[in-house]
Amino acid sequence: MVSEALSFILQLLIFPGFLFIICLAFFSEWVLRKFVARIQNRMGPTYTGSGGILQPFADFIKLLGKEDIVPAFAERTYFTLTPLLCLTLPLTALFILPMTGHRALISFEGDLIFLAFIFTTLTIMVFLGGFLSGSVFSMVGGVRAATQLLGYEIPFLLALFGPAIPASSLSISKISTWQAQNNAWGLWTQPIGFGVLVICLLAELELLPFDIPEAETEIVAGWNVEFTGRRLALVRLGRDVELVLASTILADLYLGGPQQVWIIPPIIIFLAKMFACLLLIGYLKTLFARFRIDQVLSGMWKYVIPAAMIQFIILKLIW
Amino acid sequence: MSGSTIKVIIGPQHPALKEPERFILETEGEYVVDVKVRIGYIHRGIEKAMENRTYLQGLYLSERVCGICSDAHTTCYVQGVEELLGVEPPPRSRFIRVVVAELERIHSHLLWLGIAAHEIGFDTLFMYVWRDREIVMDLLEIVSGNRVHYATNTIGGVRRDLNDEKIHKILKGLKTLEDRAKEYLKMIQKEQTVLKRTVNVGILSKSDAIKYGAVGPTVRASGVKRDVRADDPYAAYDEIPFNVIVEDGCDCLARIMVRSREVLESIHIIREALKRMPGGEIRVRVKPRIPPAEALSRVEAPRGELLYYIRSNGTDKPERCKIRTPTLANIPSLCKMLVGGYIADVPIVLAGIDPCFACMDRVLVIDREKREAKVWTLDMLRRYGREWYRKR
Amino acid sequence: MSKEEEILEKIKEKFGNKVKDMTIKRSRRIFAETDMKNLKEILRYAKDELGFDHISTITGRDLGEELELIYHIAYQNAIELSIKTKIPKENPRITTIVDLYPSAGIYEREVHDLLGVVFEGNPDLSPLLLPDNWPKGVYPLRKDVTLEEIRELIEKGGEKG
Q: What's the gap in Å between the CA of B352 and the closest CA on chain A?
């Protein structure tokens, strides 16, 4: 009993818990930065560590040491809460996603709904944090984040729940196990849903072409313009964790998640799938120019939502 | 109406502005209803300074009006002074001026294309274009020895000659540039996200362009065929056949297209100039004192019509030297373009005129030299330079 | 007859001796001089009848007792007509030409800043180039303002300090 509890705590704290996820987040940021840089014919980070691998970590440490400023017009509670929740919400979400084996660290029937809830909360926190930081730019950024949510939330949820239909379960672990066992990856059975989910995740992560809430040349840094020091460090780490979260969702729900192939352990297979998704996101990020907010909304309602609905109808007809 | 508008202040510090300038936008929701411009954050007082310096010193000052179109400024200044003196620069020097001016235009347009891509969030294009800008910067270094302030022009000609080896290198570099420029031109016309952000954005109709006195690529993108190189030929432009690029779009896409196509046209001009270049001297000696006269010199800088009015009074210093830079001429039309647009489109519309604020602000003297720890007189500098070279 | 001469003849015919010293300095460069009160009339004629639809700039110059304004206007962007006019330094006032050339507003503001010429009728003569706290009555491009004076003013940091 004691050893079981101890092992759970170790799992929670070290592997595949906090430590592993945070290391993975830093590593993912490096991979993404390097990959995007190579596509754009640049070097990317080179200085810290071999090939600049420690650069995200160094950035984090540096930001921790910077001055911490709370603007006079900011709402203190939310201003403090937003960076914290930006980090903890995606971290919590990662516990319910299977990474090392068939079962996630915490798994229960209906955790898919919990995941959807976390994503929406995250955007609302971004909106509140931006709106209450007391700067024009962060206010515009926060409002834009909320407006964008209206566009992508419906297709996002439809694409998120699509894989649950064939597996007839609302548990992420069960869905990915079902896909792995039946060799019926979501990518093959519902390709439109996969595309919709990728687009919505780009919007959720505020990556190009949907980085409207933090468009640098328009509204400086958008909703996170007022964050400094350790708050900014937390926000940035939260972004990295969210990046891991996004690629993990794609890997688990549409690529069968961790599965044993021959003698390769599931974690390796999972990481391979996750990084494939990460690179896909990175590749898409470099391809486009930024949309305008009205163009995003009309595009989402005109094309992405119908596509997600058609996918849902097809699924219902088959299963 | 005053109750429902919100003032959004862009600048003096803003990521979309590469130089400090202030735009106060009156907005209603996402729409811009009025614009006020406050310039003057980077005055250096060059006009006043010129009156207190000799013509030759003024040449170096004029080069430093702008970092990007430095050659256009010296060409304009030098032509004015030559007109005052009644001196004709040798034919070979006029062709070299064309080569450097066109290389500079390519460099400036590529720089602008990168910035425009960055303003609409297309960082990949930005990186690619700026990588290729290095080629033309290297070519300028081959021609003049410098990457930024070329210091090619001097009163009465140019300072450095071209030889066959340099010409060969230029032609080779131009070939690569031409391929790349064609590639970008094709890509811009096809890429949907670029089109979405630029088509019908920042409209400046043909009649407005004339009414508000727009110049350069901005006016040419509104379908008005105005180019000082063709209308009022200087240097060797009257001996080189070329097309004036005009687009009818009147929007930001048209401005991108005009500049991209002008890059190709400039490559063509350089090739022609190198082909037709006569031999002979590259400069004539001139007297430092200039008899009283006045001259109006115009040049097509990469951003548009640049104008110098110089008046001499018989001494070695000019009586008055007026500089009118293209960006200042484009400000009224910029305000016109911004009104009625979205806030999100402000950066690309702003970038659309290719603003160069350092050029625009230049009038007041700010001499910080005295505050610095080391005050160096000209003689001290000269001595230092001589010693430094001896040591090498 | 060249185009420059044609334009010169037309203006001479219309305005007679209201226009002085009309010369063609070289191809595409015409200089002329006129009185303050005839200026606008000539500009209007040049714009409406001769097609000088582009104003390049307004140059201001300190002559000592008087200030000289030079209006550089362009014909199809090729022929540059420079019309000079003199105004007294004591009371430098002249009517605006914003109604003729909307883009002239910004050049008038520049001249107002640096030489203190008041353009009557210009809706916005707020400082364009000089700092907001620049002392009133100091016009840096006037000849009686020396570099030392300006330097001192900047060291002091303007009026409010």
A: 14
Structural contact between residues A288 and B122, judged by C-beta atoms closer than 8 angstroms:
yes
pLDDT of A137 > 80? The answer is: no
ipTM of the complex: 0.87
- Mean pLDDT score, C1-24: 82
Give the residue from chain B lying closest to A220, CA to CA: B15
Which candidate in B119, B183, B198, B345 is best for mutational testing of the A interface (most A CBs within 10 A)?
B119
Which CATH number describes the domain made up of B43-323? 1.10.645.10
A136 touches chain B (CB under 8 A): yes
* SS3 assignment, position B258: helix
Task: Please give the C-alpha separations between residue B349 and each of A303, B212, B302, in angstroms, as whole numbers.
Answer: 28, 16, 17
Within a domain: A304: yes
Are the beta carbons of A28 and A244 closer than 8 angstroms? yes
Number of structural domains found in chain A = 1
Backbone angles phi, psi at B157, to 5 degrees: 150, -150
Residue A190 to residues A194, A254, A272, A310, B335: CA-CA distances in angstroms?
7, 8, 21, 10, 50
d(CA B287, CA B290): 7
Q: Do B128 and A287 touch (CB under 8 A)?
A: no
Partner-chain contact B30 A212, CB within 8 Å: no
Residue A148 domain-assigned (yes or no): yes
* C116: Cα separation from own chain's centroid: 12
Is residue A60 situated within a structural domain?
no
- B265/B261 Cα distance (integer angstroms): 6
What confidence score (pLDDT) does residue B390 get? 67
Instruction: State the smallest CA–CA distance between residue B349 and chain A in angstroms.
Output: 11
Cβ distance A217 to B131 less than 8 Å, yes or no, reads no
Question: What is the number of CB-based contacts under 8 A between chain A and chain B?
Answer: 71
Count CB neighbours of C90 within 10 A: 7
How many other C-beta atoms lie within 10 A of the C-beta of residue C102? 17
The answer on pLDDT for B371 being more than 50 is: no
Rounded to whole angstroms, what are the CA distances from B30 to A79, A109, B17, B27, B253? 26, 44, 20, 7, 21
Domain presence at residue A157: yes
Among A146, A153, A277, A159, residue whose Cα is nearest residue A212: A146
Answer yes or no: is pLDDT of B361 > 60.
Answer: no
Reported as a single tens digit per residue, the pLDDT across B214-247 is 888 888 888 888 888 888 888 888 888 888 888 8
DSSP B158: E
Contact of chains A and B by CB distance (3 or more pairs under 8 angstroms): yes
Give pLDDT tens digits for B168-184. 999 999 999 999 889 88
DSSP code of residue B89: P
In DSSP terms, which residues pair with C59 in a beta bridge?
Answer: C70
Q: Does A209 touch chain B (CB under 8 A)?
A: yes
Q: Chain B residues with CB inside 8 Å of C57's CB?
A: 307, 309, 322, 324, 328-329
Nearest to A218 among B128, B191, B347 (CB): B347
Minimum-distance CB partner of B296 among C53, C82, C110: C82
Look at residue B267 in the predicted model and tell me its pLDDT: 92
**How is residue A140 written in tokens?**
């515009």
Among candidates A140, A289, A293 on the partner chain, residue whose Cβ is nearest the Cβ of B120: A289
Q: Give the nearest partner residue to C106 out of B226, B295, B331, using CB atoms.
A: B331
* Interface contact flag, A294 B342, Cβ < 8 Å: yes
pLDDT digits (tens, 9 = 90+) for B237-294: 888 888 888 888 888 888 888 888 999 999 999 998 988 888 888 888 888 788 888 8
Domains and CATH numbers, chain C: 3-100 (3.30.460.80)
Instruction: Give C38→chain B minimum CA distance, Å.
Output: 23
State how far the Cα of A113 lies from the Cα of A157, in Å rounded to an integer: 9
**Cross-chain Cβ contact B347/A217 below 8 Å:** yes
